[in-house]
Amino acid sequence: MKRITAIALLEEALRNLDARKGDWPIRLIDNLYVFGSVARGASEPHDIDIIIEHDVPHEWAVEAENLRTAGRNPDVRFREPIFGRRRSFQVLCNSRQEKFQAVLLWKRGDSLETALGRLHEIPEDPSAGRAPREAMIPAFDGLDRWISLSDRKNIAAAVSTGAIQVDRLLLADGAVADRKIETYLLGRWKPTSPLYRAACAVASYWQTHGVDFWATHLHGEDTRDWQTPHFASFNLRYTRAVPVCLTEHGGVEWLEVVHPTPRGPLNCLRIKPGDREKLVQSEWKF
């Protein structure tokens, strides 16, 4: 997009924030930053990258967990009132992965005029382009916007040492033929939830590949047995457990549905152990 368009969209977003700053949960926001190509002054930014920093009181923590359980991203409660559903905005909440190059636009207590002034103080730089993404491997292509920098670094570093192998799958939608499995999944998620759709696709994949569903670990829970060599999770919520699961629990593979959606493609990273000793010794941070 042209820079003039990006600036106009940001002006509208700041006006929305100013108008709704007393609403729940918008009133929890402490700071709003822009980073990426817009912050660097690019004449034709690819998109508009935003960081929102907000307080996390108990009331919000409970609401956010309820939304996640229902298969919804709680960040949408901050994003949509300010940015609508425009795909031009890529919004991160309480993320520090790009903070070092971010420009503060608004902080709690600022007037609209102050925020707009900061926006227009960012100089245009025709030589600035889109910054290359850090810690990329082929499996991340097209998915990196949903994979945090820390996760990319962990996975890419482990791939480079041979500790793990990673490839990309596109999971197919599949009906769950087993009534007991279907009942189990419906006990965890509503049928309209993107997580239910992802879980059905994972269960179908396991069934096709001869995996006993009841000897698996699905999104933070053992389905039945404690010995679970097959693992799956969604939205990279449990990736901190990958080294332990693939080294101490006889782990065979980890399926990570990167961005479950109601209708879009179910892109999945398939992580398999390589050199388990190197995986144990890896500096896997979270």
Descriptive notes:
This is Nucleotidyltransferase domain-containing protein. Residues 25-82 form the Polymerase nucleotidyl transferase domain. Pfam families: NTP_transf_2. One of its GO terms (molecular function) is nucleotidyltransferase activity. The protein has helices at residues 3-20, 37-40, 58-69, 76-83, 112-121, 149-161, 179-188, 194-208, 242-248, 276-281, and strands spanning 29-35, 48-54, 89-93, 103-107, 164-171, 216-218, 221-222, 230-234, 253-257, 266-273. The protein is of the alpha/beta class and 286 residues long. The protein folds into two domains: 3-121, Beta Polymerase, domain 2; 138-281, no CATH class. The strands form two sheets. It has a six-stranded mixed β-sheet. It has a four-stranded mixed β-sheet with strand order 3-2-1-4. Helix 7 (179-188) packs antiparallel against helix 8 (194-208).
Name some characteristics of this structure.
single chain; 286 residues; alpha/beta; Beta Polymerase, domain 2
Largest sheet: 6 strands, mixed
Main structural class = alpha/beta
Seen as an oligomer or otherwise, the chain set is single chain
Beta-strand portion reads 15-25%
Count of helix runs: 10
**Number of separate strands:** 10
What is the N-to-C order of secondary-structure elements (H for helix, E for strand)? HEHEHHEEHHEHHEEEHEEH
Outline the secondary-structure elements.
Layout: H1 3-20, E1 29-35, H2 37-40, E2 48-54, H3 58-69, H4 76-83, E3 89-93, E4 103-107, H5 112-121, H6 149-161, E5 164-171, H7 179-188, H8 194-208, E6 216-218, E7 221-222, E8 230-234, H9 242-248, E9 253-257, E10 266-273, H10 276-281
Parallel strand pairs: 2-3, 6-8, 8-9
Antiparallel strand pairs: 1-2, 1-4, 5-10, 6-7, 9-10
